[in-house]
Amino acid sequence: MSNIYVNVIGQGTAYVDNPTPNNGDIITIYAYASPGAQLLNLIMDDQNGYPIAVSVIPVQTLQYDASWGDCTITATFTHDLITVNYGAGGYAYVSNTMPADGETVTLECIPDLTHELVDIQAFDENGNVIPLSLAIQQTFVYYASYGTVTINVSFDKKFIYRNLWLLNRRQWWRKNNY
User: Fold this and answer.
1) Are 18 and 65 contained in the same domain?
2) What does the alpha-carbon distance between residue 1 and residue 22 come to, in Å, rounded to a whole number?
3) What distance in Å separates the CA atoms of residue 109 and residue 155, rounded to the nearest whole number?
4) For position 63, which CATH number holds?
5) φ/ψ of residue 75, rounded to 5
6) I need a surface site. Which of 21, 24, 99, 151 has the fewest CB within 10 A?
7) H-run or E-run covering 171
């Protein structure tokens, strides 16, 4: 009987269903990313540090071989480099949350029928402003020096819908002799 140890790098959880397998046992490795993260890979090394298996599949099944001895499984997770926050009145997203240095990323902001886009703010991990225009669709270039980028998008009711309540109230007042 041998031992299987699990290491996690990044934001996620990994475990094996049978941490003390015998020769020929079927073992299943589970790896689940935390919100905003993705599984990069699973690597299983034998007792000498030689890789036995490499996978990008979050649930991996294999047959244990006693010649491997004690094994170590390392699950590596990466996190999104770009996060988009948006409130009521629409939604927004980027074409790629994990861009490479110098890669062009498209930001799309889609207001609901009764709302309009009113603000876009983007900040790097140090709080420095990344200039973006107030456009429903635009592209920008991601640079590694930005680190993690946060984009905040705001929507508000269109002018006509903001004032509709007041207009209806005035009509009610007139109708009821106020």
Assistant:
1) yes
2) 5
3) 9
4) 2.60.40
5) -105, 120
6) 24
7) helix 164-175
Is the CB of residue 138 less than 8 Å from the CB of residue 153? no
Q: Which structural domain, as residue segments, surrounds residue 150?
A: 82-165
Average pLDDT over residues 14-24: 92
What average pLDDT score do residues 137-163 get? 85
Tokens representing 98 are 């994990």
Q: Indicate whether 153 pLDDT > 90.
A: yes
β-partners of residue 62 are 27
Distance CA 13, CA 37 (A): 11
Three-state SS at 48: coil
Segment (H or E) for 95: none
Prediction pTM value: 0.57
Q: Cα–Cα distance between 120 and 57 in angstroms, integer?
A: 36
Tokens, residue 67: 């010649």
Looking at the domain assignment, is residue 108 inside a domain?
Answer: yes
Answer yes or no: is pLDDT of 59 > 80.
yes
Cα three-residue angle 111-112-118, rounded to 5 degrees: 35
Residue type, 53: A
Domain count, the chain: 2
Count of CA atoms in the C-beta half-sphere (13 A) of 71? 31
